[in-house]
């Protein structure tokens, strides 16, 4: 029976999905390292981790039987992806599962800032009654500028329009406008007339401090800024100054250039104690639903790879989606991307009189992945000979009768 170990309290939705597929699932609450991790890597065909378990090249050397790694989170920087690729191991993650959670938070923060709730809330807790309409606005009819109109940015636009906001966005790539959203030609154009600006770009050299004193000076006076993307995108000192000057009327910031490593470490920011500022501890995507979705999404990718060889969504691998096994056997061959690999494979198959019903090769960098559907299953000897071909990193045979049961 195929064995999978889930570390770091991965959501139960993953165990359920994996068990349904016939796998033996073991779970541990914490992260692992060193000898304990190596034992787990050697004893399981699949491993599920979150961000606290680090899989270095040295760890991956202990993973001779490991077929795939599931990162039950968004990022994959905790895995040495080059080492995993060189070992023929695809790595899967869940890049979209928490996007709705971020979008909902952002839209609700826009309302909170426009109504100046952060400062009214602070005053109420301090026993002060600040009833009044001055400086409080509806979201309806206001302009929201979305910087980065990808998975999250575009969802924010849809939710904001549902409340009657006008949406303008700026992206470096041409994007399909959803609803009535309008593309701006530049960042300056996007922010110039916005009442609220929200950032949804990745951390790249180009987005580092993209919201600096110059861009903040181009904001409409009193506009709000929301950042639930990456901490490097906003020059925090410039934002603090713009808030003190009243150039920016409020801010909701979820991500910071430097964040505490754990909940036990202190959090310090220049934005603390400024009026109309909401500070949250990088929880934009942290909801029960997102965790559940992540469990289902990554488990499904692992099961799909296990039972069909599909690598769609792998972060480090050539992507192939061959569909269910509907021939007697399917051969999955991962090899160093060198000339002659396919010819050598096909020659050995022909020598045993096996006909190729279908074949799909994809390459990525130094890795080649070829999926071959066969009209009969190879003998054990042929399987050994195929695995021993020069440059072969991994070889696996899926037999039609077994593929559904993941055994
Ligand atoms: P995505 O990749 O779907 O979208 C990013 C968009 O930004 C793309 O359309 C891209 O073309 C655009 N872009 C890239 N460079 C740009 C530039 N210089 N100027 C304008 N547009 C640019 O990413 P997704 O999933 O929407 O995530 C957006 C951000 O949110 C990422 O930084 C991600 O790390 C962060 N995030 C934060 C979470 C939190 O807990 N606060 C949770 C999930 C994601």
TrEMBL record:
<dbReference type="InterPro" id="IPR029752">
    <property type="entry name" value="D-isomer_DH_CS1"/>
</dbReference>
<comment type="similarity">
    <text>Belongs to the D-isomer specific 2-hydroxyacid dehydrogenase family.</text>
</comment>
<feature type="domain" description="ACT">
    <location>
        <begin position="330"/>
        <end position="400"/>
    </location>
</feature>
<comment type="pathway">
    <text>Amino-acid biosynthesis; L-serine biosynthesis; L-serine from 3-phospho-D-glycerate: step 1/3.</text>
</comment>
<dbReference type="InterPro" id="IPR029753">
    <property type="entry name" value="D-isomer_DH_CS"/>
</dbReference>
<dbReference type="InterPro" id="IPR006139">
    <property type="entry name" value="D-isomer_2_OHA_DH_cat_dom"/>
</dbReference>
<dbReference type="Pfam" id="PF00389">
    <property type="entry name" value="2-Hacid_dh"/>
</dbReference>
<dbReference type="InterPro" id="IPR036291">
    <property type="entry name" value="NAD(P)-bd_dom_sf"/>
</dbReference>
<protein>
    <recommendedName>
        <fullName>D-3-phosphoglycerate dehydrogenase</fullName>
        <ecNumber>1.1.1.399</ecNumber>
        <ecNumber>1.1.1.95</ecNumber>
    </recommendedName>
</protein>
<comment type="function">
    <text>Catalyzes the reversible oxidation of 3-phospho-D-glycerate to 3-phosphonooxypyruvate, the first step of the phosphorylated L-serine biosynthesis pathway. Also catalyzes the reversible oxidation of 2-hydroxyglutarate to 2-oxoglutarate.</text>
</comment>
<dbReference type="GO" id="GO:0006564">
    <property type="term" value="P:L-serine biosynthetic process"/>
</dbReference>
<dbReference type="GO" id="GO:0004617">
    <property type="term" value="F:phosphoglycerate dehydrogenase activity"/>
</dbReference>
<dbReference type="GO" id="GO:0047545">
    <property type="term" value="F:(S)-2-hydroxyglutarate dehydrogenase activity"/>
</dbReference>
<dbReference type="InterPro" id="IPR002912">
    <property type="entry name" value="ACT_dom"/>
</dbReference>
<dbReference type="InterPro" id="IPR050223">
    <property type="entry name" value="D-isomer_2-hydroxyacid_DH"/>
</dbReference>
<keyword id="KW-0560">Oxidoreductase</keyword>
<keyword id="KW-0520">NAD</keyword>
<dbReference type="GO" id="GO:0051287">
    <property type="term" value="F:NAD binding"/>
</dbReference>
<dbReference type="InterPro" id="IPR045865">
    <property type="entry name" value="ACT-like_dom_sf"/>
</dbReference>
<dbReference type="InterPro" id="IPR054480">
    <property type="entry name" value="AHAS_small-like_ACT"/>
</dbReference>
<dbReference type="Pfam" id="PF22629">
    <property type="entry name" value="ACT_AHAS_ss"/>
</dbReference>
<dbReference type="Pfam" id="PF02826">
    <property type="entry name" value="2-Hacid_dh_C"/>
</dbReference>
<dbReference type="InterPro" id="IPR006140">
    <property type="entry name" value="D-isomer_DH_NAD-bd"/>
</dbReference>
């Amino acid at each position: 029976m195929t064995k999978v170990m889930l570390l770091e309290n991965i959501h139960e939705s993953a165990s359920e999905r994996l068990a349904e597929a016939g796998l033996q699932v073991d779970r541990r609450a914490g992260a692992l390292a060193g000898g304990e991790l190596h034992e787990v890597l050697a004893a399981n065909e699949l491993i599920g981790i979150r961000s606290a378990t680090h899989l270095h090249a040295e760890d991956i050397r202990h993973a001779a039987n490991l077929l795939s790694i599931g990162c039950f989170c968004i990022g994959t920087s905790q895995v040495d992806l080059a080492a995993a690729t060189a070992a023929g191991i695809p790595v899967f993650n869940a890049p979209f599962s928490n996007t709705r959670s971020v979008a909902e938070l952002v839209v609700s923060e826009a309302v909170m800032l426009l109504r100046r709730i952060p400062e009214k809330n602070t005053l109420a807790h301090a026993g002060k009654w600040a009833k009044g309409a001055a400086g409080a606005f509806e979201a309806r009819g206001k302009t929201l500028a979305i910087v980065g109109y990808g998975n999250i940015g575009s969802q924010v636009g849809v939710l904001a329009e549902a409340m009657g906001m006008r949406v303008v966005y700026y992206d470096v790539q041409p994007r399909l406008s959803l609803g009535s959203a309008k593309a701006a030609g530049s960042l300056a154009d996007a922010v110039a007339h916005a009442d609220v600006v929200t950032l949804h770009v990745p951390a790249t050299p180009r987005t580092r401090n993209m919201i600096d004193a110059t861009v903040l000076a181009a904001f409409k006076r009193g506009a709000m800024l929301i950042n639930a993307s990456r901490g490097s995108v906003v020059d925090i000192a410039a934002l603090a100054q713009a808030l003190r000057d009243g150039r920016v009327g409020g801010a909701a910031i979820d991500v910071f250039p430097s964040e505490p490593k754990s909940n036990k470490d202190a959090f310090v920011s220049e934005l603390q104690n400024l009026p109309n500022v909401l500070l949250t501890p990088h929880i934009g995507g942290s909801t029960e639903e997102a965790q559940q979705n992540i469990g289902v999404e990554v488990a499904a990718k692992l099961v799909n790879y296990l039972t069909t060889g599909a690598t769609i969504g792998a972060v480090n691998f050539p992507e192939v989606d061959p569909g269910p096994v509907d021939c007697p056997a399917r051969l999955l061959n991962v090899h160093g991307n060198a000339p002659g690999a396919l010819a050598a494979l096909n020659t050995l198959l022909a020598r045993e009189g096996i006909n190729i019903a279908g074949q799909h090769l994809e390459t990525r960098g130094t890795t080649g992945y070829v999926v071959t559907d066969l009209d009969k299953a190879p003998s054990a000897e042929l399987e050994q000979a195929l695995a021993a071909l020069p440059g072969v990193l991994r070889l696996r045979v899926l037999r039609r009768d077994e593929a559904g049961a993941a055994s």
